[in-house]
Amino acid sequence: MNKLRDVCKTCLLPGLATLASAFAPAGPALAQLTVNPYVDERFEHDSNVFRAENAQTNFLNFGDATLADTDLRSVVGMDGTYLWSQQKLTATLEGRRFDYDHFTDLDHNEYLGDVAFDWKMTRLFDGLIEARQEQLMAPFALGNSTQLTIDVDRKISATLNMNIHTDWRVETGVYSHDLKSPLQSFPDFEERETGTHLAVLNRAVTNLSYGISLDHIAGVFENAPDVGDYNQTTADLTMKYTASALTSLNAAVGYTKRTQTDNVNSAGGVTGQFGYSRQLTGKTSITVQFTRALNSYLAAGGSEIDTGGSIGLNWQATYRLDVVVSGGYMHSQFIGQIIPGSDANGRVDNSPTGSLNVNYQILRRLRLKAYLNRQSRSSNIDIYNFSDTTAGIEVRYTWL
To answer: How far is CA 70 from CA 65, 98, 118, 135, 139, in A?
Structure first.
């Protein structure tokens, strides 16, 4: 796994230019470069910054019973796109600054860098090569810490797809993922994983593709005692159907098996997803999503099975104004724990969410967004209960 990650780091980004030139047409081609800088300011009020059960819990953790705070997020970024022939190279660079009014110990900087090369070679082959790294504050809802901790999330991925005749398509992919996620007692804690993907799809029926997919993940938790490696395999039957320009649905159902060192946190079960979108009227659309997935729970070095769904309604009132209302629910079951001091084995959480977003394009380059989010969690372990409301206003100015 380490060798694969090192190869990706040393070869992927320098190889983008070489690969791009290999795919460029021999004759003259029209190329287009677009660079779009932007600035973004967001002012937010959060009713429960640390996602604590109550004010007493905050006082025990910090000596401060205050739950709420306001913060200002300032962003400077740039999107870039380079097009030539059938190839597309995109990049996003972003720097962020967070300043809190009350909990000033949470003041911090973040960044994002993302480079992607979307390539095509004749009609037979296509794929995507992407490198992404982001530094961000770990969300307190995960229970990783009751203090400011900064995650560094790096992922390098590549896909290679082949169209066989007009009816069959083979999709393959590999990735390397490295997440540095400090825990309160283990500041060097890290999750590393590599993954592979294979899918065979049939497109003989108009507007319908269906097939099978296989995914494998090999991972390891590092820099915490007694936490070892894990392997996870998923097999799915997949389907995507576009009934018309107004309606589409996609679905997958299969089985996921996860084994961990000494079988302490091994888990398995039926997994999958279902998505549906429909343009109800000229101005209104709806999306529905259901998922069941097996994931890592970093704070305990174990696993969790997440089952949930969401529904969203979009109203494009005018070409300048759109309103999005959504709601969701997640049921999480935690399996196993290895990291000392963690409290997850047998834990069950239920987490409803709701949101309202209003977007207004004031000018061609200037956009205003107002939002209200509500979330809560009820758990069979009381210290993980919380409720929280965030409300904010965001203004973004783009150069183009």
So the answer is: 16, 10, 40, 21, 16
Query: Residues 295, 303: contact at Cβ < 8 Å?
Result: yes
Q: What pLDDT digit, counting tens, does each position of 295-335 carry?
A: 988 888 888 999 999 999 999 999 999 999 999 999 999 88
Ranges of beta strands (E only) in the chain are 31-46, 69-84, 87-100, 108-121, 125-137, 150-164, 168-180, 190-202, 208-222, 229-242, 247-260, 267-279, 284-297, 302-315, 321-335, 348-361, 366-379, 386-398
With tokens 């190329």, the residue in question is 31
SS3 120: strand
8 Å CB contact between 335 and 318: no
Please tell me the distance from the alpha carbon of residue 331 to that of residue 304, in angstroms, as a whole number.
10
Report DSSP state, residue 179.
Answer: E
Dump pLDDT digits (tens) for 164-196.
988 999 999 999 999 999 988 888 999 999 999
Q: Are 103 and 45 in contact (CB under 8 A)?
A: no
CA atoms within 13 A on the CB side of 43: 4
* Domains identified in the chain and CATH numbers: 2-398 (2.40.160)
pTM for the structure as a whole: 0.87
CB contact at 8 A, 193 and 5: no
- Cα distance between residue 47 and residue 58, in whole Å: 13
Distance CA 93, CA 154 (A): 14
Radius of gyration of the chain (CA): 23
Give the mean pLDDT of the chain: 90
* Nearby residues of 53 by Cβ (< 8 Å), 6 or more positions away: 382, 383, 384, 385, 386
Each residue of 228-246: pLDDT tens digit? 789 999 999 999 999 888 9
Please state, as a whole number, how many other Cβ atoms lie within 10 Å of the Cβ of residue 30: 7
